[in-house]
């Protein structure tokens, strides 16, 4: 069984209570559990991590290149601000799928610009917690192509 990293950025630890009208009412633990189970059904191990710290996310990406086939990443607010996160994605040499719970294009103008999208294999947004499952499915399909 191959493995992938499901990596969550800042403030996603508050899912379930943080702006449920925007992000839904499902907790991060529930999203992780569903993603792990979904991955098992696809024959892939999903390992989950979350950090509110940019450097910890970069460290997780660097480490993933040694054990993961790819990464499903919700960079949270760092999507729009982090050149360092973008550079880490470009450097690791494994496919990354960017995901977002909300439709970022239906929100504030600053959310329309992603610094990481250009170095990701694709982007999924606007499907709530299902964005993660779609990201896992897309990444597994990408990994099965090689």
Q: Can you characterise this structure?
A:
With 146 residues, this protein is of the alpha/beta class. It has a single domain (2-107, 129-140), classed as Rossmann fold (3-Layer(aba) Sandwich). Helices cover 38% and strands 19% of the residues. It contains five helices and five strands; from the N terminus they run E-H-H-E-H-E-H-E-E-H. It has helices spanning 20-23, 28-41, 54-64, 83-92, 130-145; strands at residues 2-8, 44-50, 70-74, 96-100, 122-125. It has a five-stranded parallel beta sheet with strand order 2-1-3-4-5, sandwiched between helices. The longest helix has 16 residues, at 130-145. The model has no long low-confidence stretch (mean pLDDT 92).
Summarize this, please?
The protein is of the alpha/beta class and 146 residues long.
Keywords:
single chain, 5 helices, 38% helix, five-stranded parallel beta sheet, alpha/beta, 146 residues, Rossmann fold
